[in-house]
Each structure stands twice: as C-alpha cells, then as structure tokens.
Write a structure and sequence with these properties.
This protein has 8 helices and 7 strands. Strand 2, helix 2 and strand 3 form a beta-alpha-beta unit. The protein is an alpha/beta fold. A 7-stranded parallel β-sheet has the order 3-2-1-4-5-6-7, sandwiched between helices.
Length: 264
C-alpha cells in the first residue's frame, strides 16, 4: 500500500502499536507511521488478512488478537513490547459496526459485542499502554471514535453509545495523564470509502426498505462537503496529533468527516 502522507516529525525511533490494523483505516494508519520513520506493531482478529498484511509489509510486527478479550490484549502487549522495546504511541483503532435495527429488536449479544470491541478494548489497551508511556517519559494515545460519537444515530444505538463512550474515556484520560506528558485525543471519522461503509449502507437500506443507491446518496448528503473521506485522510490526522507538530493537542475530539451535519 502506498501513502501520500505529509512528513510530520515524530520522536526518533518512535514505537507504535495499532489495533485492528491489517486492513482499512488501521492499515492506513500503520502504513503512514511506518512511512514516516516509526516502528509499528499491529494486531487483527482476521488471521488471513494479517498474513497478507505481513507479506506486503514485512517491517511490521504482527499478532492475531481479539481485542475484546483482556487476556488476548495482554498477550498482544507482551509480544508488542518485547518486539518494540517500549512504547511511544498507542492507536486504539478497533471497532465494529454493530447491528442496524430499532432498539427493541437488538439482541443482547449484539449489544454486548459492540460495546466489548468499540469501548472495552480501548480501556484494555490504555490500561496496558499507560505504564509503558510513563516509562518512556510521555507519549500519545489516539482513540478512534466516529461522527456518531457526537450525534445521535437512529437504528445504530449500540454503535452510537460505544462511540460516545470513546469520547468520554478520551477526555478522562487526557486530564488524568496530562501531568505525565501523555496526550490523549479522539479521532471522529465520518463515512469512509471502502467495503465496511458499503456493508453498513446495505444494512441500513434493508432496514429502511430502500435501494443501496438511494441510501448511499443519503449518506453522501449528510456531510457539508458532500463526499466520503478516505482512510488516508484519517491516518494523516492521527499522524499529525502524535507528531511534534501536534505537541499542544490533547483532550480533543477531532472530526475527519467533511463536516457531518447530522445522522439518520
């Protein structure tokens, strides 16, 4: 995968962990850090995608991990810190779309799985990362939220609740960790190009009883810029807030969404 990321100065030999990074936004983030001089260790639940990622970019350290399981997170961090020799940046990227349905039709298992991946994993990652970042004299945590972390999102209540939770966790950690020179920010993407948003749109179209094309056009109209954003645009923002150029930025929820005005 090629990147056109701007060159923002990172800490020399910057050591980065990215969750769920074999494909999509996570892969763009990992590639962008690596292209700008960082050493990157990543995980993914999809073993086949992880093998392909490692083949395409052998400079990465990789391990399979279900980030909703705290025991697997512990194994992931043990492997990552042994490979990296420490930590400077954690990017909590993992997330799932969750169910698309009225709240009364959402199964308990679907609710719990969405919360487990989208917010619990961020807590598990931060809990392991903070002692390493303190030992390094400071660093950065970036949590991936969503435009649904600042707006109501009908038919997507588990996703919306989890993404608002990411923003709350981010703000709490920024206050708690600021005195230790650890900056914590949330990135709030809007609809991003790729297979994942296509699946979300297809599910919403089915729930609404309309065509995929009609729902895709509605999603496009949600943003002032009338377009989806790219994985690379999200990765560029993550790199920026972790670089020397973003040294004064913490506790922020930064939209990369073309200004999503509302969700429906």
């Amino acid at each position: 995968m090629t990147t056109n990321a701007p060159l923002f100065p990172l800490k020399p030999d910057c050591r980065v962990i990215v969750t769920a990074a074999a494909t999509g936004i996570g892969r763009a983030i990992a590639d962008t850090f690596q292209a700008n001089g960082a050493r990157v260790f990543l995980c993914d639940i999809d073993a086949e995608a992880l093998r392909q990622c490692a083949a395409e970019q052998p400079a990465f350290g990789t391990i399979a991990c279900d980030v909703s399981d705290p025991d697997q997170i512990d194994r992931f961090f043990d492997a990552a810190t042994a490979w990296l020799g420490g930590l400077d940046v954690l990017v909590n990227n993992a997330g799932v779309a969750g169910p698309t349905a009225p709240v009364e039709d959402i199964a308990t298992d679907d609710w719990q799985r969405t919360i487990a991946v989208n917010i619990n994993s961020h807590f598990y990652g931060a809990r392991r990362a903070v002692p390493l970042l303190k030992a390094a004299g400071g660093g950065c945590i970036v949590n991936l939220s969503s435009a649904a972390g600042r707006l109501g999102f009908p038919l997507r209540s588990p996703y919306c609740a989890s993404k608002w939770g990411v923003v709350g966790l981010t703000q709490a950690l920024a206050v708690e960790l600021g005195p230790h020179n650890i900056r914590v920010n949330a990135i709030l993407p809007g609809a991003t190009t790729g297979d994942r948003i296509d699946r979300v749109i297809a599910a919403k179209a089915e729930a609404r009883g309309v065509s995929f094309e009609t729902m895709h056009a509605e999603y496009t109209k949600l943003a002032s810029m009338r377009r989806f954003v790219t994985h690379q645009e999200v990765a560029n923002m993550v790199l920026f807030v972790c670089s020397d150029a973003g040294a004064g930025i913490s506790g922020q929820s930064l939209g990369v969404c073309g200004n999503v005005e509302y969700l429906r």
